[in-house]
Amino acid sequence: MKTLVDHLAQYAAYHRDRRNIASHFIGIPMIVLAVAVLLSRPGFAMAGLWLAPATLVALVSAWFYLRLDTRFGLLMAALLGLCLWVAAGLAQASTALWLSAGIGLFVVGWVIQFVGHYYEGRKPAFVDDVMGLVIGPLFVVAEAAFLLVARRHEARDDINRRVKLQQKAARQSDVLVQLRKERGIASAGGKRDWLGRLKALRVRSGIRMSLPRLVLACTAAASALGGLAAVRFGSPYPLAAAPVIGACLLPYLVLSHLTKRRLKHFGTQLPEALDLIVRGLKAGHPVPVALAMVGREMPDPIGSEFGMIADELTYGSDIVSALQALNDRVGHEDLPLFVTAVSIQSSTGGNLREILDGLADTIRGRVKLRRKIRAISTEGRMSAYILTAVPGLLAGAVLLISPGYYSGVMDETLTYVLFGVAAGLLAIGNFAMFRMANFRF
Fold first, then answer.
1. At 186, is the pLDDT very low, low, confident or very high (cuts 50, 70, 90)?
2. pLDDT of residue 344
3. Is the dihedral of CA 141, 4, 327, 275 positive or negative?
4. Does residue 170 sit in helix, strand or coil?
5. How many whole angstroms from its chain centre is CA 307?
6. Nearest to 307 by CA among 286, 291, 323, 329
7. d(CA 97, CA 313)
8. What letter does residue 319 receive in the DSSP assignment?
9. Whole-model pTM?
């Protein structure tokens, strides 16, 4: 799957003229609103919300944006919600007003788009890749965020977290202490013993929020959703179960997701970091200086991690212990290769440049093999996604066609028991299919 940067870079290649970019700030919001308006019928009101095909499209789009980036995903979800609110008001008005507003916004928006591409001298991005239709709104939001926020900061401040702290701290030791505190690591370098596995996940996820705050936030969010469900269905069971789920299960799921995403990013950066170390050694720098170069030049997560190694070496730690601490707090499966290579070289000697050069090629080969395996196993994962989505989509379609179809059984206790059984069977089926579609080597 392409990253946020890949999608935006591909889309930006079709939008370099300032007049074309300016036209997108007007045309794309009009088109998005027009699509929301036109898809807001047929629909029906439920619990004060207007449910229509536009709702499903907005939910799928928000899920896609959240997978690319959490912050931009939340912002896009809020903007899509605003469009749905406006569209719901027009959908409940007269047919003439609804249709004229939708078609008018759609036509004018596309006219503005094509005028912009006339100045660009290039066809729209969606002609070559249909994903351009989905990335267009995200591109506008990203451009707006860049104009409003990014240009206020110097480029150096955006390299990684450690470099940002260096701008504020009076002493380098304060930076190391602060980074350890944010990661939940004691000043001596060991992990605090609290809730074991959850604590280790928090260290490896890289989040700066303390574990008690995270548990409290998850419990509050789950309790709020449980309260809404209790009010909607008139049953106290969701409200009673929500705090337990929020305190015990939700933090683990959140930290597991963040850890997995961070390890994937770290694994992508590791070969580049090794190449940078090799170039530093070829230039005649000692190993600690080459490691410090990674901390200065590369973005997070690997920049701050190698910066912590450089700080630990500065304040008396040996290189083997510093690298082992890196392996403990990151936990990437390729790191032991790097730690072992440097440990053996430091004790027996040898050409570290050649060792690291070969190691970088090995790790790149492993990454390539992982991606190949993931591509081969895509069919199994997509089958799991589709089979999981089918019950919800069918239920939504039935409600859309006949809103009162399930009203006779929603007050029965057996209905919720069957919902629980169905959810459990879906979970077991997904677990089995993902186990078959994922390989370790």
1. low
2. 87
3. negative
4. coil
5. 24
6. 291
7. 70
8. H
9. 0.56
Residues in CB range of 202: below 8 A, 6 or more apart: 184, 211, 214, 255
Angle between helices 378-401 and 413-437 (to 10 degrees): 160
Residues 286-313 as b or e (16 or more Cβ within 10 Å = b)? ebeebbbbbbbbbebbbbbbbbbbbbbb
Average pLDDT, the chain: 82
Burial of 381 from C-beta contacts in 10 A (0-12 / 13-18 / 19+): middle
Tell me how many degrees the CA angle 392-396-402 measures, rounded to the nearest 5.
145
Helix axis angle for 70-91 and 132-148, nearest 10°, is 110
Q: Which residues pair with 46 in a beta bridge?
A: 49
- For the record, the structure tokens of 168 come out as 């504020």
Distance, CA of 393 to CA of 390 (rounded, Å): 5
pLDDT above 50: residue 194: no
Q: How far apart are the first and last CA of the chain?
A: 21
* Phi-psi label, residue 17: left if phi above 0, alpha if psi -120 to 50, beta otherwise: beta
Any idea what the Cα angle at residue 105 is, between residues 101 and 109, rounded to 5°? 175
Query: In angstroms, what CA-CA distances link 261 with 205, 265, 266, 412?
Result: 8, 6, 9, 41
